[in-house]
């Protein structure tokens, strides 16, 4: 038996002995740190066989959750309001309050202390809805903050946090599925909902504590003001929860440091590509694209190996109206005129081409000032896509 297992066993035995819980918490939590519910489940069956009551084991689980909930709740923001880290930490506090309310509400129903009234079930759905929204919280961390931390050589903590995000999503998925059930079905599954909410509460408390105490302070040491401007811009692009405290912009939106550009390289706001790589990307897209400029002249088309519609180089510079049969030119004209005037930004069609179903979309292309630059035509064979059902998560 490991030293940690001995500590856990001693802890639960002293709970069973009726010792003061506050004193036990201060002593054991400092020694044990994070106690994952899965860790307790490893020993639970053996403890029960040896006479430990499930009630006392639950006391240990609840104590662990309360310990980390208090830790996160009592953590003071390490930055002022308006900083991206303040936004993330504020969301941590709110999500912890939501999961605590969820777990408490369901616990009271399971124990019979509260009836399964429609208004209580509706509140459960509302609380679960907050966790559906929280997807953007994790996306902002994973896609805006973690990459910049890793660029400074700190790769371990972001990787570990990302793994925990997947575990959190796995638990949340159960809640999301149950949210869609009728009131009768939801009431029947309260035990499952109860176990899931307790596990999520413990996991979030532990996870948020790690990010607030380790990851965020490290990011404050590593990232420059310009990098935080980039984080803020990326946060805005990804989006927020309805309960988020959005960060402030510091002056003009930040742009990444401009790379040195050679004549064979193009710099975009989100990175740079060589001409060869850019052309290869276009030609590997699982779609056909054609660009028509503001004067209705064809200027470019991709050359994927399985093109849907024939395109030749002779079409470059040709009026797009001449590329369509007379019977459909009026539709093309209407779309382009709507794009030019700003009355429309997109148009879509789908047709049967033999045994294939082809999805055709037109998009108005505009610059940052809104000036019309042209029309992008995107065609895609969606025959196989229409057959997709269920999920495929493994490479086969």
Q: What's the layout of helices and strands?
A:
Elements (H helix, E strand, L loop, with lengths): L2 H14 L4 H12 L4 H13 L4 H21 L9 H27 L7 H16 L1 H17 L4 H24 L3 H6 L1 H33 L2 H14 L26 E4 L2 E4 H10 L3 E6 L4 E4 L24 H16 L4 E8 L2 E11 L5 E10 L15
Antiparallel strand pairs: 1-2, 3-4, 3-7, 5-6, 6-7
Helix pairs in contact: 1-2, 1-4, 4-10, 5-6, 5-10, 6-8, 7-8, 7-11, 8-10
What's the Cα radius of gyration? Answer: 28 Å
Order of strands in the sheet with most strands? 4-3-7-6-5
Structural class: alpha+beta
Proportion of residues in helical segments:
55-70%
- The CATH architecture category of the largest domain equals Up-down Bundle
Strand content: 5-15%
Q: In angstroms, what separates the terminal alpha carbons?
A: 41 Å
How many domains comprise the coordinates? 2
How many helices? The count is 13
Return the average pLDDT rounded to an integer: 84
CATH superfamily of the largest domain: nmb1532 protein domain like
CATH overall fold name of the largest domain = Four Helix Bundle (Hemerythrin (Met), subunit A)
- The CATH class name of the largest domain reads Mainly Alpha
Low-confidence stretches: 252-260
What does this entry look like structurally?
By secondary structure, the protein is an alpha+beta fold. It is 56% helix and 12% strand. It is built from 13 helices and seven strands. The chain has helices at residues 3-16, 21-32, 37-49, 54-74, 84-110, 118-133, 135-151, 156-179, 183-188, 190-222, 225-238, 275-284, 326-341, and strands at 265-268, 271-274, 288-293, 298-301, 346-353, 356-366, 372-381. The strands form two sheets. A five-stranded antiparallel beta sheet has the order 4-3-7-6-5, covered by helices on one side. Strand 5 (346-353) and strand 6 (356-366) form a beta hairpin. Helix 6 runs antiparallel to helix 8 (156-179) and helix 7 runs antiparallel to helix 8. It starts with a helix and ends in a 15-residue tail after the last strand.
